[in-house]
């Protein structure tokens, strides 16, 4: 039996962190100034907000969709995080207005759901498998908590508490209650947040019930669908394994392989990890560890994208990582960040923070355009020119998901334990962390991810002995560390991927970390059939791609010689400022091929200079092809 | 303006050809003894045959499907061809019985269609785009002609003439007629066959009307679907271009690119080519030539498979030839054979016969298992182990299509003109061809496709001067020819890919053709992004694949070194007797990869002996992976 780490970390809240970072601050600004208003506009124009008026009637146009509540809730959550770090009376007012509308939609008994109030009244809780009812509730709860924590206003919090109380009265093992759970996990992690915000243990227990009950026999969805079909029956018909699709194929503690819909999986694992921490249930952590290995060692794209096919919006089989048809939903990479963030508090191992970094710098922010107004739902690793971000989606989960993550990014940088400060992510700015009753200031300076030189400055009112942990990223093979300009031996101070400095710190102490950041060529496990003989370019945490805009139309003709000379150059005018990589590549000739599709003569090649850009920045210029994995020529 | 060749060839009918070939005869036997009875059983058990009783009523199970008539018709066609070369009283009786049932389903006015008689009575000709009504008529007509030609019985022929007369009274440009055409081309080519069988010019004209009217404005399907939806509306919604899907986006003479559903395209081009020959309409031939180039130079798999995606069961964009998801429908490759066979009679160029050979030996016969009872609908070029032939399909077009092709294979071997005999395909046996009033016998001997040595023996009652053309296959780089043991210079006698021997022939003349048949490594055009850095093995007309059954589970790890030593060995115990290819390959190691999915160290490799088998024979043993294109190591 795994012994649960008693010294669980606590993340440092984003409200104690100021980000002042050349890479992230402009993104957060765009998120605040463009994305959040854009999403409000979309929610408003598509009727999602006014749907809370519950005045839709059968026969009217624009029937409310089962997901609509969650889109608005995630927008409120994003807006709230933004208000916490950047007060904005106008946005504050807008949020209040929307909350008022939501509150007005709450039924006497606490129930709150647009679709089942106006489209299918009287049908509450009859389609847990497909209809996303508890999922929407979960997002409303997350919004209520975020709004309360950002503004200290209890308006939405009280609404969602009342709703959660109602849900608690409906679901459970007690006589007369429904012994069900949601087809799309989400409420489980939301209820833990609500527990943290309110201290009400019933919410934690309800979350635990949902997690524990999942996959038990008799199987709830089997019973539910015995005499009825679900909202997505026509889609579900094409699923090979419906129970795996929503991870209810086994009780969660018996699960070892990531299966099914990837966002559902991530949200569930997030709740499992957090419950493990809250309850000390090592069996949940063990399941998480097995699932983590299976995901990260066999089923994750190099960008931190997950989900190999759009068919089930999820996992297929080990090492199946197709490039053009990768699903890699933005929401799934965000869920990966959530889950790893919870794991990191349980076990301070750099692999979790590495996974967060991989996703953040690649498969998450690829989900939004540089101007903040267009979004990828799926994030393919190659395109023949037909994949583009869109302003909105009928099922609009991804846009507000990335908005809420960017608005709360500060919360992913640091953790603390009673005696330690841990730096997981390298993002410039400052944090205030209470250690031994003292508000310790820690400042980060650098030009990450373009440069590996980082400086940390401590601000203390009085000297104190505590530990400082700095992550040595998995991609980094050589690092140097100095404390107050004196070299420290990193290797002798390593602890699960972090360099650990325990000493008497004083005000003005300077720590310098130098992470060597050469351009690397990366290879996939030989079982990834799509990438055999291919290589990807990575520098620091940034995964690169080649795009037609900088190169040629037919990118598949480009090959990277084994010994290709690659050069990194910062180009401030390119894509908001990026380190681009120039390389001596080769390109296949086609001039002898005019009259053949197949020949016994091998295609010849000629030298060709390629330009690679960070993957996250693709599809921000003219339309064209893109690929991350490039054929390698020996 | 292209000048249409005045000396159009005539194919030598399969009834004048005896096949006695080590490769094909066992297949034709299996087709006769297993496949045709198996398909009768399937048609019977699924209710397709009894549906002609028209006793299905609303509310009953097993609602007749819009394709059912065509499945039974194609079975009759296959059975008839078989009867022509292998009389079988029992089969003859069975065919008569089915024909009697079909005849009983014919309405007073000649109309004959199960679905629109019992499921949608009163709705005749209201859904030409989707409902396959004229398509089914076309297959009934082909069956009627085949049955008549095989047995000289007029039972079904008269039924279909009456039906064709009815169709002729309904469709056309005359006042009061419907100015429509079928969403799934087929009747066009069938009506030309009916014209040939009966001499009735109205059938030719009706075919021409359908071809000429297609894609004209106002667009018939636009008018038809103004106030109604089609049978496949839910599928059609996902089509990017509905008019391209059924090749009605432009008048046929203006078409230059193969688009849409590949079987529809092939059947249409077949009719266009034949009409060009019948009417001397060079503009139709020119369109065919443009389309031919576009298909064969940019959109054909190496197996002769066509159709790059299941989405539209058809074409996507140039050079998009995915391996695992290739559609390559068996019917489409058969349609490719039909079309090329018509082109070959118009222009005796080896490229057409080469295309037939490529499809026949690879993507067509891969469609049926060695035991004759299981069928591929799609013929992928790679499989991760999940693709298997099935006994039958809800939409069962492919199984009887391959049965009718195999039963009439003799018709694809020879053509003649008044003064020439042309040998297109190398299949052992004998043909009787009337030249200058004399029944010339031509015998073929050899062990094709395993061996390139071929012997032709002429049998004449008296000496005569005529031409003999033998195809030098496109895959062959060295050939030798002897007439009566005397070497003939091939190069000086080449005519569009055929060696042409015009002389005074006498009884007993022997022609020996030696086609050098080394193992070749084949490469794709550099624009085929799926095959960059990959090679396929081909020997003679046979495309090879590697299968897990002979090799390892994870085939993607196999690489073929540039200078790999490859050896061809005939193995009579393998897959009914094949030349297998052994090769010194390499295989990627994974033992350093236990804990990584991505690394900066390139995977190492070790020597590995591979066995390749003919592509057509894959998936006849235990389940496993398969691939045609193998990564090449320089």
TrEMBL record, chains A, B:
Ranges in a coiled coil: none
Non-reducing end beta-L-arabinofuranosidase-like GH127 catalytic domain: residues covered: 16-410
Residues of the Non-reducing end beta-L-arabinofuranosidase-like GH127 C-terminal domain: 520-631
GO-annotated biological processes: carbohydrate metabolic process
UniProt cross-references to SUPFAM superfamilies, sorted A to Z: Six-hairpin glycosidases
Domain of life of the organism encoding this protein: Bacteria
Domain Non-reducing end beta-L-arabinofuranosidase-like GH127 middle: 421-517
Pfam families: Beta-AFase-like_GH127_cat, Glyco_hydro127C, Glyco_hydro127M
InterPro entries xref list: 6-hairpin_glycosidase_sf, Beta-AFase-like, Beta-AFase-like_GH127_C, Beta-AFase-like_GH127_cat, Beta-AFase-like_GH127_middle
Protein known as: Glycoside hydrolase family 127 protein
Organism: Heyndrickxia shackletonii
Lineage: Bacteria, Bacillati, Bacillota, Bacilli, Bacillales
């Amino acid at each position: 039996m795994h012994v649960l780490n008693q010294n669980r970390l606590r993340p440092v809240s984003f409200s104690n962190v100021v980000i002042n970072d050349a890479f992230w601050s402009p993104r957060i600004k765009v998120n605040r100034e463009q994305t959040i208003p854009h999403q409000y506009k979309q929610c408003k124009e598509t009727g999602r907000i006014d749907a809370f008026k519950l005045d839709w009637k059968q026969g009217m146009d624009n029937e409310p969709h089962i997901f609509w509540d969650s889109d608005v809730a995630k927008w409120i959550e994003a807006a709230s995080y933004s208000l916490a770090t950047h007060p904005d009376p106008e946005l504050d007012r807008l949020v209040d207005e929307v909350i008022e509308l939501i509150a007005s939609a709450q039924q006497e008994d606490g129930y709150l759901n647009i679709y089942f109030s106006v489209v299918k009244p009287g049908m509450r809780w009859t389609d847990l498998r497909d209809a996303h009812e508890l999922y929407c509730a979960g997002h409303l709860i997350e919004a209520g908590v975020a709004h309360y924590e950002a503004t200290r206003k209890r308006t939405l919090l009280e609404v969602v508490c009342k709703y959660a109380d109602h849900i608690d009265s409906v679901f459970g093992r007690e006589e007369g209650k429904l012994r069900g759970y949601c087809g799309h996990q989400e409420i489980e992690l939301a209820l833990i947040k609500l527990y943290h915000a309110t201290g009400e243990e019933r919410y934690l227990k309800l979350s635990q019930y949902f997690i524990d009950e999942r996959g038990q026999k008799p199987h709830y969805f089997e019973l539910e669908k015995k005499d009825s079909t679900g909202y997505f029956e026509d889609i579900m018909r094409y699923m090979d394994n419906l129970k795996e699709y929503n991870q209810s194929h086994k009780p969660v503690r018996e699960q070892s392989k990531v299966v099914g819909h990837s966002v559902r999986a991530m949200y569930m694992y997030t709740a499992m990890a957090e419950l493990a921490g809250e309850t000390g249930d090592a069996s949940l952590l063990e399941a998480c560890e097995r699932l983590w290995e299976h995901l990260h060692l066999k089923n994750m794209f190099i960008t931190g994208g997950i989900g190999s096919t759009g068919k089930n919006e999820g996992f297929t089989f080990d090492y199946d990582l197709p490039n053009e048809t990768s699903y890699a939903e933005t929401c799934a990479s965000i869920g990966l960040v959530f889950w790893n963030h919870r794991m990191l508090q349980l076990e301070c191992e750099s692999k979790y923070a590495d996974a967060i970094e991989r996703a953040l710098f690649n498969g998450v922010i690829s989900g939004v355009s540089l101007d903040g107004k267009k979004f990828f739902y799926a994030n393919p690793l190659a395109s023949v020119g037909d994949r583009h971000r869109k302003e909105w989606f009928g099922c609009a989960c991804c846009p507000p998901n990335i908005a809420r993550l960017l608005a709360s990014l500060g919360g992913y940088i640091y953790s603390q334990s009673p005696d330690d400060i841990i730096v997981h992510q390298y993002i410039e700015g400052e944090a205030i962390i209470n250690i031994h009753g003292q508000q310790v200031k820690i400042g980060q300076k650098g030009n990450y991810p373009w440069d590996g030189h980082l400086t940390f400055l401590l601000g203390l009112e009085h000297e104190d002995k505590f530990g400082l942990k700095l992550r040595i990223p998995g991609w980094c093979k050589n690092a140097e560390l100095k404390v107050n300009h004196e070299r420290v031996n990193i290797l002798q101070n390593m602890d699960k991927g972090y360099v650990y400095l325990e000493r008497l710190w004083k005000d003005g102490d300077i720590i310098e970390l130098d992470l060597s950041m050469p351009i690397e060529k990366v290879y996939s496990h030989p079982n990834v059939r799509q990438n055999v003989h291919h290589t990807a370019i990575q520098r620091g945490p940034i995964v690169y791609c080649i795009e037609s805009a900088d190169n040629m139309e037919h990118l598949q003709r480009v090959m990277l010689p084994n010994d290709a000379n690659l050069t990194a150059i910062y180009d401030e005018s390119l894509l908001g400022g990026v380190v681009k990589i120039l390389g001596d590549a080769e390109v296949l000739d086609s001039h002898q091929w005019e009259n053949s599709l197949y020949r016994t003569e091998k295609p010849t090649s000629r030298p060709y200079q390629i330009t690679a850009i960070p993957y996250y920045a693709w599809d921000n210029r003219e339309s064209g092809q893109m690929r991350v994995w490039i054929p390698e020529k020996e």
